[in-house]
Amino acid sequence: MTLRVQNTMTGKLDDFTPVNPGRVGMYVCGINTYDDSHMGHAKSAVTFDVIRRHLERRGYAVKYVVNFTDVEDHCIQRANELGISLDELAKKYIAEYFKDMRALGVRDADEYPVASHHIPEMREAIKKLIADGFAYASMGSVYFKVSKVKEYGKLSHQSLDDMQSSGRVDSEEGKEDPMDFALWKAWKPGEPSWDSPWGKGRPGWHIECSVMSMKYLGETLDIHGGGSELVFPHHENELMQSESLTGKPFVKYWLHGGLMNVGAEKMSKSLGNFFTIKDVLKLYEPGVVRFFLLNTHYRKPIDFNDKALDEAKLSLARIRSTWDRLRDTKTAEHPNPDLWERAKKARADFEAAMDEDFNTRGAVAAVFELLRDINKALDEGKVCEKAKEEAIALFGEFDRLFGVLAAQKAEGDDMLAPLMHILVELREDARKRKDFKAADLIRDRLKALGIAIEDSAGGAKWKYTKKPPEESPNDI
RNA sequence: GCCGAGGUGACAGAGCGGCCAUGUGGCGGACUGCAGAUCCGUACACGGGAGUUCAAAUCUCCCCCUCGGCCCCA
């Protein structure tokens, strides 16, 4: 079965065939290094982490590049406020970013280029654009001449006429056309600067991505990803620059993810309605957060609220519980071809969903579908070796991709297991004597501590359940 | 205004011409000392209006609404 991806450029589901067979170059816009990352960043990071994992599972050698932007207005302002250099600010927030990403189980990219470390390459690119007539210097800045490229708007599906009549006329001094955008910005007081043939200044927003992506991935990328708010102007401009520079197609597949909303608005720094990854991880374990993010197709927006997170927690608990039971079960001697068939079908459904534009929600549905059959067979002691293998394979694939099955361990209490063993034994004993008062007391007291006891035919089991948060859910 | 993505049952969320999505929560039942877990059954649905078709959440047209983009933003 072929992998298909929704391509913003064509507006369709395109069959995925990388430029170089077997290899995929993938570039995703990372963060601006001036603050802690929030859940919107987590959504993007986890989305592309899973896309990358799926490509690798399918046998592609993926080179994955994520950039850091450390030169732009917010960074400059923040660095000035703190009285530190852009570099120091960037170091701090890059370190925080790695902490957050690793806590979330996001695998490291292969390269993390930083904008300010690529100024020479950007200067060269700008020089070439001027020499080729795509850009012009004016009052110490350099602008890209939008009228020079006929295809302007091909990614965001807008025409220059539309945009010009849209009231977006922020005529900056020195621009020949209001639609032109800056490649190099002339120095202003209070801003850091680098030397250039056009006077001291700093690079514009889009040129860094053109330069860095092509430096690490070559002139044509297979996949360029980011949040949907980046389609215009950032990706559109990046595209125009890059293709003007090389004369070759810049990106084969543009993938854009839906945004994280809070109520009716998107979560963003500028609106101030954001929740940092760190804060959310204080209340929900990483697996739950990942599951929450992957429970919706990546192109759709997700509303951030505690109800949805709680639901993700419950759903995930159910998968984990079956996963544990399955691994522990003694297999039946009689073959269960029906169950085996169902497990095979679930695996096929799972893959088919992932191959259709990384439909994680559809893939989860395939897991749940099998879950029911497995639980039933487990209850009846009818899980045969072959079916068990097949089911475990599905769970394995699921976990390789989603990275959610390993539950967070209770910290630092190796003594818990042996102690629990004693308590469970005492309680079993009480139950045998029909001393239900004692048995219930043990169960209730443990529950208050966040440990659930569950009786079953094969003896009682206990599991660690995080205590409900003390804070009001609205405080998250 | 222009461009893009959407509007699916109580909520969340797949599907995108004919067949059960799935999850959380309801309701009824099985199991259990009880609870939980698990299973079985069940109710609740495709924004509105025209049209195409033997057949439409699924295709076409019109309308309404929401979100995103057009300064920065994953």
Summarize the SSE layout with pairings.
Blueprint: E1 4-7, E2 12-15, E3 23-28, H1 39-57, E4 61-66, H2 73-82, H3 86-103, H4 119-131, E5 135-138, E6 141-144, H5 160-164, E7 181-186, E8 201-203, H6 207-217, E9 221-227, H7 231-246, E10 251-257, E11 260-262, E12 265-266, H8 277-283, H9 286-294, E13 302-303, H10 306-328, H11 337-355, H12 360-380, H13 385-402, H14 416-432, H15 436-449, E14 451-454, E15 461-464
Parallel strand pairs: 3-4, 3-9, 9-10, 11-13
Antiparallel strand pairs: 1-2, 5-6, 6-7, 7-8, 11-12, 14-15
Helix pairs in contact: 2-3, 4-6, 6-7, 9-10, 10-12, 11-12, 11-13, 12-13, 14-15
The protein binds one RNA strand of 74 nucleotides through helix 1, helix 5, strand 9, helix 7 and strand 12.
Structure in words:
Helix content is 46%, strand content 14%. Strand 1 (4-7) and strand 2 form a beta hairpin. The protein has helices at 39-57, 73-82, 86-103, 119-131, 160-164, 207-217, 231-246, 277-283, 286-294, 306-328, 337-355, 360-380, 385-402, 416-432, 436-449; strands at 4-7, 12-15, 23-28, 61-66, 135-138, 141-144, 181-186, 201-203, 221-227, 251-257, 260-262, 265-266, 302-303, 451-454, 461-464. It folds into three domains: 4-278, HUPs (Rossmann fold, 3-Layer(aba) Sandwich), CATH 3.40.50.620; 317-402, Up-down Bundle (Four Helix Bundle (Hemerythrin (Met), subunit A)), CATH 1.20.120; 416-475, no CATH class. The chain has 476 residues and is α/β, with parallel strands linked by helices. The protein binds one RNA strand of 74 nucleotides through helix 1, helix 5, strand 9, helix 7 and strand 12.
